[in-house]
Amino acid sequence: MSVVHPGARAFWLVEPGRGEIRPVELREPADGEVLVRAVVSGISRGTETIVFAGRVPPSQHDTMRAPFQEGDFPGPVKYGYLGVGVVEQGPDELRGRTVFCLHPHQTAYVVPAAAVVPVPDDVPPERAVLAGTLETAVNAVWDAAPLVGDRVAVVGAGMVGCCVARLIAGIPGTEVTLVDPEATRADVATALGVGFADPSAAAPGRDLVVHTSATEAGLRRSLELVAREGTVLDLSWYGDREVSIPLGEAFHSSRLTIRASQVGAVSPARRGSRSHRDRLALALELLRDPAFDVLLTGSSPFDELPIVLAELASGARPALCHTIRYEEGPR
User: Which of 104, 132, 155, 239 has minimal CB crowding within 10 Å?
Assistant: First the structure.
């Protein structure tokens, strides 16, 4: 086997709470494959910190597998899915192109050409790492189907919540409010062109509430904010935590709906006309919007990834999307 990028390395979660960088042997790409040199990757703070902490329930081990994951939960496992790189070998139409790939954190990798999607020329690589998150938001908006003039609250101003808020704000006449207890997220909301409120001060009577905080308190507050016969769309993933919500009180008399949304399958509203690849390509096109840069809140070199993920998981490092740079990786 001919080996390319002899110095290639990947991040592995060795066991819950402890990661390390390991060498990787890469073979030459076959026909229909590409060799990608990583430029930057993003950390999905919600899902990846749950994985890092070993909190993926056994019943969800298969469901939560990433496209190019190696190993199994709780570890050792190679996990991640927000990668941007440059195609060094492959079909002529892709060679030299900057592409997005749902690949774990790794300095170089070989994948099928169909697994990479070109990044528009006017979308910087750092912003392009948000494609996986924005794809989740696109799917959620397809699920939620907000209407012109809707009053919408997005509870949880993390990566997904911010992306959902920005997309819905583009619908004429909508009134969108990000709801979060972290006061510094008010500036993020302003940059995204939406309102902001602390949970205690958020206005009730919302036609639609999108919940993304991954907390029981956030889901409970979402039910309090939605209007009679309204819908709470829950994008949060709670890992192995049990969540208690008040299904007594006004839940039944107000005829409320709680609906789950998850990116693993294309929304039923578009499943007949859009593929996973179509949805990801749309997300990359939407990232032409520079407003999304406000979500990029820190960057570290690849060698520091084990420490960075530990700090994100513990809450010691606040961030929306923290990116990992590979400029010192093999070329």
Answer: 239
Which pTM was predicted?
0.92
Q: Is the dihedral of CA 280, 285, 286, 290 positive or negative?
A: positive
How big is the CA angle at 131 (ends 175 and 51), to the nearest 5 degrees?
100
Euclidean distance between CA atoms 319 and 317, whole angstroms: 6
Split the chain (331 residues) into runs of 10 and give each run's mean pLDDT. 78 97 95 97 90 92 93 96 97 97 97 98 98 97 97 97 98 98 97 98 98 95 96 89 84 92 93 96 98 96 97 90 78 35
Q: And the tokens for 204?
A: 């009730």
- Using alpha carbons, select from 35, 48, 40, 58 the residue that is nearest to residue 159: 48
Determine the Cα–Cα distance for residues 271 and 274; give it in Å rounded to an integer. Answer: 6
Nearest to 43 by CA among 79, 92, 8: 79
Say how far apart CA 48 and CA 275 lie, in whole Å. 25
Name the one residue in this structure whose structure tokens are 């979660």.
13
What is the rounded distance in angstroms from the CA atom of residue 91 to the CA atom of residue 30?
A: 10
